[in-house]
Every structure is written in structure tokens, then in C-alpha cells.
Please model this.
Amino acid sequence: MSGSFTTLFDHQLAAFESAPAPTAQDRLDRLGRLRALLMHHRPAIRKALHADFRKPPQEVDATEIAPVVIEIDHAIRNLRDWMKPRSHRAPTFLAGTTWETRYEPVGPSLILAPWNYPITLTLGPLVHAIAAGCPVFVKPSEHTSATAALIQNMVSDLLGPEDAVVVQGGPDVAQRLLELPFRHVHFTGSPRVGRLVMQAAAAHPASVTLELGGKTPAVVDGTADLALAASRIVYGKFANAGQTCIAPDHVLVHRDVFTDFLGALVNEISTRYGETAKDRHATPDLARIVTPEHFERQVRLLDDATRLGARTAFGGGHDSADRYVEPTLLVNVPDDARVMQEEIFGPILPIVTYASFEGMLERIRSAQHPLSAYVFSKDDDLARALGARIRTGAICQNETLLHFVNPEVGFGGIGTSGIGRSHGHAGFQAFSNEQTLMRRRFGAGIVERLYPPYSSRTTKLVDWLMRLS
Model:
């Protein structure tokens, strides 16, 4: 283990243990300064993300900066209320006592951030930690080095090392950090690495928030507005070149509308990214795959699918020189193709048909729990029925992605798609210790009658108390 990490952690822990938790005003001031830093560095953030994987500047604004600003503004509006002690009632036999819950910072915490949305998924959890009053270590992804360097500069301008430390490096650095006795770990990434994070956190033990992924389905039924469905699915899938944990991974479309829906998808992609393959390659509106290794995986997924009999209905082009993969639609995809078994995390969209609700449901349930599920239908009951039959963090009807940016609702998954919730009050709670404060005012005599030596009168008293409860 790096001695410097241990020294920095010990410094944070000592500072945390020796001083009262930051006041509401302290936390509000820090959140306000973080907001100002984000807006001040807006051009630099755009530049860094373009350098890392050619993310369009407007997409940076909409999917990286705006979600964090929304989180900050929501926390600023609600923080004092979140921090207020909550009073609670007690059973009758506890008459004479008062009860309240306080939210105290859990202590030094670790944020392990991914590369795909390096601003949103690094600074969003930082907002929650600041709101809760926790000192943190932050490790941005090594795959987006330009953005990681900018994050380090921003955080060091915002907070001293007793409150926040940014550590750069790869998996070996993350592994050394996980050896430190953090109180909470917030990780966003793959289920495979999530298991390792959870195992490491259990050694201390620490609570965890795991935002993982899965094969998010999009269902298009026979009543759907096909133009609207195509518009929302194309944006949700191809924003960030498909490198989004809640992107539609594949589409399940009712067989009666398959042909029309496929045409709507082709039209939508052509409108958004270019009429010809040359135009799409040249568009500034499509991000690139983050690393050569990730690019090669996308090519292997395509090759595997076509080798097993899938047909490329649109796209399929790619260029290793600039890590470009064309928006691609696959049909006739066999179930054993890797694109149907693994989270794709790129601009490849398999489309399969279904004939009945039960058939569609079985396909979704045969995979691991998705992080989200999208339903395009005019039938509200379909979304409710799907939500009742599958286990997922969110069901969205006639939209994609937008549930991520509403801080009024918690965001997260279940099982292999995640543990815990973040955003808004849920994010504040994740970095907080829910502490109970009980006070005895009067009435201790009843409780004392339950003390030894026990007798039949004790049993009768317990029976009476249980009836009162």
C-alpha cells in the first residue's frame, strides 16, 4: 500500500474525528463554490472531453455539466431540511420517552468514478458527500486523462486535503485505495469490478453504493408512436456513442410493427447523424469509443453477431484510426450472439421481435436484472405490468435516460445492476449515518418491572405490553 495514501487518509480521519461536522452553512458554501467552478470551467470541460473521446460540446453541456448543476441546486434548496432531526412516535409501553433521528456524516469515503461520464459520475457523488458533510477520496478514471486532470484541479481549488483528495491512476491505485478503512464506497462501473469493490469494502466493513449496468431493454408494442419511439431510442442509444449504462441495449419490438419501426429508426439516425456513411463518419455530433481496446471489443461484437447469422440492417462501418463505430442496427440476431449476452456499451443496437407479452417478458427475465427498462406504448397498463414482473431500478414510458437527471427520485439498480441509491436525498443518505437519539422523560417504573428476578407477574406484564403495542 502506498504510504502517501495512508498518510492522507490518516490526516482526513484525524480532522474528521477532532472537529464537529460541517454546519449547514459550510456545506451550502462549498456546494455554491462547486457550482461556480463548474460554470467557470465550462469551456475547459468541453475541451477535455473532446480530447478524451471527442464528445460534442452540446452533449457535454446536456449530459455532463447540467446534471451536476441540477444536483447542486436541488441540494442547496433542500439541505437544511435534510439535516433537520426527525421526530418519531413510540409504542404505548414506551410512554415517557422521546425519539428522533439525526443524519451525521458517515466519515471518510471513497468515490471510484468511471470514464463514460467522467464529470457527472465523479462530481455528482461528490455533491452528495459534501451535502452529508463527509471528507472523500476521489479517483477519476485513467481512461479519460484530460478530464481527470481537470477534476483534480477543480477539487483542489474547492477543498483542502482534509476534505477532499483526488488520486489518479489505474486499477492498481483503486485496489490500494480499497485497502484503506473508508466508511463508505461509491463505485460506478461493471458488475465484475463491482463484486471486487464490495468484497474489499466488506473487510473493514464499509457501506457501499454500487451503480453497475446490465442489458437495458426497450420495448416497442403495437400501439406505440413509432416516430417518437425511434427518436427517443436513437438519442438514448447513440448519445455518448452508446457508452451509457442506461442506454437502450437492445429493442424488443412487436412483430406487427417491426418493418415500420425499423424504417423509423433508419430515418432518425440519418436525420441526426448524416444521410450517408461518409456524412456519419464526419459528423461532429457522435462521440468516439474511449480507447483502442474498447473499440476492438465493439468490432468483435459485430463480427461475432454476423458470423452467427445476424444481418446488418443499417451501418456497420468502423475506423480504428479514430476509434469510430457507425450507428449500427442488427436484425435476425441469434440469442447466443455476444451482443445478446453481454452489455454492449457502444453504438450497436440489436432489434428482435416478439409476439406476446409473456414471450417478451421471458426474454427480459432470462437476462440479469437491468438497471433500467424502457416501454414505448400508449397503454399505461403495459408499463405497470412490466414493472410488476421484472426487477429493475426504473421503468420509463415513452422516454429514455431522463430518469437519471431528476434528483427528486433515487437512482440505482438491483442485484447485478447495482446496490443502493444515489441522487438527491438518497445520495445524501448514502453518505450519512442515521443516528437515533432517545431520551427518557418519565415512566421508567414500568420498564424496571421487567428486570430480574423474573416471575409470573413479569410474564403477565409482557403480555399486557404486547397488547398495548
